[in-house]
Design brief:
The protein is an alpha/beta fold and 195 residues long. It is built from five helices and seven strands; from the N terminus they run ββαββαβαβαβα. Bound molecules: guanosine-5'-triphosphate (GTP) and magnesium ion. Guanosine-5'-triphosphate binds next to helix 1.
Length: 195
């Protein structure tokens, strides 16, 4: 599933814009700035396929990328940053809900959590949405290069307890660094193993 090149397909702002559901799909959700776009770049071995930036809320559309002929990687808009106008937030939430509950080819969601911060209330909300949408999800800790072992273990304990409340959650937690490459091959093989 992970053979071949990646290409940006399109950014989608409404359900009517979704590409035809003609292949498997995985999506990446997480708070703004958690590292979704960077992770997609690391997974696909590209530097700037998905735009990564320091400006929170940079990715405001649902962005579709191909990975070879049989897979879509989907970069979801980041949630939970301050200063977003309520109207914008509401629009995203609606689109996100529609996408998560209505996309038949969506095989798994990856919920990215900053390895320094653990699960926040907004993450819990998304996880609840995934539960009710019956989308199985797996938690990916990002920016592992930024935490020391002791702190990391504390966060892992918090995340493990947090996931236990969610029926759609996989128990396995992935520790990744888009910067250093940790966990990227593992994540790739998990995605490649989906059917
Ligand atoms: P939005 O599109 O705004 O929702 O953000 P995003 O989740 O796509 O985050 P993005 O990939 O743009 O990364 C945000 C910032 O974190 C950038 O400055 C990245 O360089 C940095 N970053 C991402 N992943 C890592 C990582 O593994 N390690 C370190 N040290 N920095 C990272
Ligand atoms: Mg992004």
């Amino acid at each position: 599933l992970f053979a071949g090149a990646s290409e940006f397909v399109k950014g989608v702002v409404a359900m009517s814009g979704l590409p035809a559901p003609d292949r498997l799909e995985v999506c990446f959700a997480g708070r703004s700035n958690v590292g979704k776009s960077s992770l997609i770049n690391a997974l696909t071995g590209t530097k700037a396929l998905a735009r990564a930036s320091n400006t929170p809320g940079r990715t405001q559309e649902i962005n579709f990328f191909t990975q070879g002929p049989d897979l879509y990687l989907v970069d979801l808009p980041g949630y939970g940053y301050a200063n977003a106008p309520l109207k914008v937030v509401e629009k995203w939430q609606k689109l996100l809900k529609q996408y998560l509950s209505g996309r038949q080819t969506l095989r798994r969601a990856f919920v990215l959590i900053d390895a320094r911060h653990g699960i926040k209330p907004v993450d819990d909300e998304i996880m609840r949405l995934l539960d009710t949408s019956a989308v199985t999800f797996q938690c990916v800790l990002t920016k592992a290069d930024k935490v020391k072992a002791a702190e990391r273990d504390k966060i892992l304990t918090q995340v493990r307890a947090g996931l236990a409340k969610h029926p759609a959650a996989f128990p396995e937690i992935l520790l990744t660094s888009a910067e250093k490459g940790d966990g990227i091959a593992t994540l790739r093989s998990i995605i490649a193993g989906l059917e």
